[in-house]
Amino acid sequence: MSTIRAFRCEDMFHFNNVNLDPLTENYGLAFYLQYMAHWPEYFQVIESPSGKIMGYIMGKAEGDSSKDQWHGHVTALSVEPESRRLGIAAKLMSSLENISEKKEAFFVDLFVRVSNHVAVDMYKKLGYIVYRTVLDYYSGDPDENAYDMRKALSRDRDKKSVIPLKDPVRPEDIE
C-alpha cells in the first residue's frame, strides 16, 4: 500500500529514480525549494511501504482569484518506470485536484508534450481535455509543441474553462 505525503527537503536526495527519465522535466534545486516554500500543499510524493519514492507531483494555485481564471496547475508529475501503470499518477492527480477544489479553483491545467501519447491518453482517461496547442513550448526542442490540458472543477458549473480554443498559441501568449 503506497502513501501520499508532503514533499520534504531530504526527498531531493532520494528521487533520482523518478527524475532520471527522458520525459521528465528536471529543475534546479532552487526551483524545487521555491515550490516547497510557496505551495507546500501542492508538492507531494507517493512512497512505498519501505519508504522508496515511487513518484511525485508538483503544482501551484495561480490566476486571478477573483475571476474564473483561478486554477490549480500541475507543474510536474512523474512516476518511476517500474511503478508505472499501477494508478500512482491518477492518485497524485486526484490529490492535486482535491487541493484545488478546497482552494475554490475553477479548473486544473497542465502542459504535456504532444508526442507523449501515453501521458495524453492517461490525462484524457482522468477527464482532461485538450484546451489548446502551444507551439514550440519546450525550450530544448523548438519543434516540440505542448497540449494545454484542462479539467473543470465543481466551481465551474457551466464548464466554461474547458471549451477548447481552435487556434494554437505561442508560449508568450499564455496568460
CATH architecture: 3-Layer(aba) Sandwich
Number of domains: 1
**CATH fold-level name:** Aminopeptidase
Mean pLDDT: 93
Main pleated-sheet profile: 7 strands, mixed
Strand fraction: 25-35%
The CATH superfamily is identified as Gcn5-related N-acetyltransferase (GNAT)
- Strand neighbour order, sheet with most strands: 1-2-3-4-5-7-6
List keywords for this structure.
175 residues, alpha+beta, Aminopeptidase, 7-stranded mixed beta sheet, 4 helices, 7 strands, nucleus, N-alpha-acetyltransferase 20, acyltransferase, Acyl_CoA_acyltransferase, GNAT_dom
Briefly say what this structure is.
The chain is of the alpha+beta class. The protein has four helices and seven strands.
What does this structure look like?
- The chain has helices at 16-19, 29-38, 88-102, 117-125; strands at 3-6, 43-47, 53-62, 71-79, 107-113, 129-134, 146-152.
- Helix content is 22%, strand content 27%.
- β4 (71-79), α3 and β5 (107-113) form a beta-alpha-beta unit.
- It has one domain (3-173): 3-Layer(aba) Sandwich (Aminopeptidase).
- The relative contact order is 0.14.
- It has a 7-stranded mixed sheet, sandwiched between helices.
- It is globular, with a radius of gyration of 16 Å.
- The chain has 175 residues and is α+β, with helices and mostly antiparallel strands.
- The protein has 4 helices and 7 strands, in the order βααβββαβαββ.
